[in-house]
Amino acid sequence: MAFRYGEYHDGPDPLAPPYDVRAALDEMGDAILSGSTPVHALRDLLKRGLPGAQDRRGLDDMLREVRRRRRDLRERGRLDGTLEKARALLDKAIGQERAELFPDPSDDARLREAGLDGLPEDTASAIQELSTYDWRSSAARQTFEELRDLLRREVLDSQFRGLRDALANPDPEAMERIRQMMSDLNDMLDKDARSEHTQADFDAFMGKYGDLFPEKPRNLDELVDILARRAAATQRMLASMTPRQREELNNLINQTLDQAGLADQMRRLGESLYARRPDLAWNAPERLTGEEPLAMGDAVTALEELADLTQLETALRQDYPGARLDDIDEAAVRRALGRSAVDDLEALKRIERELEEQGYLLRRRGKLELTPKAVRRLGETALRRVFNSLDAGRRGDHDQHDAGSAGELTGSSRPWRFGDEQPIDVVRTLVNGVRSGGVAPARTGGQVAVRLSVDDFEVAETERRTAAAVCLLVDLSYSMALRGTWAAAKQTALALQALVASKFPQDAVQIIGFSNYARVLQPDELAGLDWDMVQGTNLHHALLIAGRHLDRHPDFEPVVLVVTDGEPTAHLMRNGRSAFEWPPSHETLELTLAEVDKMTRRRATINIFMLAADDRLKEFVDEVARRNGGRVFSPSAERLGEYVVSDFLRLRRSR
Fold first, then answer.
1. Tens digit of pLDDT for each residue in 414-470?
2. Coil, strand, or helix at residue 205?
3. Is the sign of the CA dihedral 560, 566, 567, 571 positive or negative?
4. Distance of CA 105 to CAs 97, 111, 114, 136, 472, Å?
5. Could you give the CA distance from residue 248 to residue 631 in angstroms, rounded to a whole number?
6. To pair with 500 at 20 to 30 A between CA atoms, which of 279, 299, 374, 592?
7. 441 secondary structure, DSSP code
């Protein structure tokens, strides 16, 4: 037995490792952290293609290929090729007949010539009159039969792809078989309309006539789709011609079907197909700009492919509400771009599906949202970016594995709980593993393996470290988007949330967004958060909410950080409504500064990061710093995260 090894070509490599969807999430995270929404970030990812998979095409690559093919099809040729060839054969037959009649001096010859002179200009009408003409010239008779064979092949090929080859050498038996096929097909469609059709009926039909359908449909629905798309393309071809061309070709089609005894069956078939697929563009004109005349079957094929490509282009753009990759027809992709494109599309679908199945994305009421799991990963990414931007020589949070971060050891231990940052008590953990029966048989050399479960772990207790109540107040007003600072503010909020959750789990962090009103932002909504297209910077309301958070944690060290690009222009009235006025009213400033004074009495230092250099904003923050003793920073948007995180770490170290 011989074996041959080579490159695998029948689809994606079955031995290739699965794609890591976390890389896709990180790629989306870059867009989300730059201010995009999860929906747009996923759409952009699918358009660009999978990161780290250069051999896979994205939707944009497929879209470019589809548009190139559409352009090539439009420049392929003209639609009137069959008319032109029919006229040429008709003129040739008449010329051959005239050449035969010219030497004959008889009256019959002159009468025949007069009849030929009086033929209608319309090709179909002329062919109709000559169908009963007794040709003198055998060459003319042969040319005329060639014309009729051409029309029969082209007309049937325009309805059934592949019949042109089947009728290359027509005989009465072949035509009778086609008549019987159309009769059986119409009967099967009628039976299906009465809900009496079975797959066995279709299999029997294909067993008898399968060679006439090169597409090899697997069931009646697929056959109907094939025939309907081709019939619709024929109607679009007629609609794309000039009125005179349309009338002439229509007459030729009807005349040819009558002569073949197929007119009634074709009419029945057309009505059934239209009733089943009215969604197809049956009469939409299409423009072909090429110079080469196309045969009728070739023109219909070109228009059929153009319709497929037009629908495929719409689906690949994914720019309509609720768009999903499942909307893209894989059969249309295979017809237009080949098998490899289907594999690329399936890879993109798998990423979209895996992001949902692995708990990173959630569709809720038709809206795509990031899950808390995804937000945590994006927060870690944002935090990593911040630390990467910090000066490597600066004192601070470098990894140091030999230093405890939770205070002095007390000598006792307790069971490990999720979120603990105390060091593991290795001895007691191993003893617990042995006691619970986790000892494996001795290995070679006398070594013994101990299997540990989560319940076996113990941590060494340490002195309690001071916890902090952290409030980050982020401006969500429209001006943040106009100045291009909103993406940096969102990234900073995610980074601070991730920092506190990972390194200071005992801290209580609250992120508050404010525009005309203020509201507490939950961690899982931070990534998908967008700025508010409203008027008002209600810092008064934000400080009220922050004060309540600090009051709920009286034993915690208070940390208040404010990110804004404008002075307060709104405040909360007694009835709970927001009052907006610009320039800021005296009442707005008074109420806001009163909350600043309350923060000062709570021993909470307010550090402000201002993202604009307006004179009124400078005047306001200087007054806040004077009353509260906090600091004022004026970072660029690119360095906002670095400033906020560094200041938070400085405050934590100082306490």
1. 888 765 667 788 888 888 888 877 666 655 556 677 788 888 888 886 655 567 788
2. helix
3. negative
4. 15, 11, 14, 14, 111
5. 86
6. 592
7. P
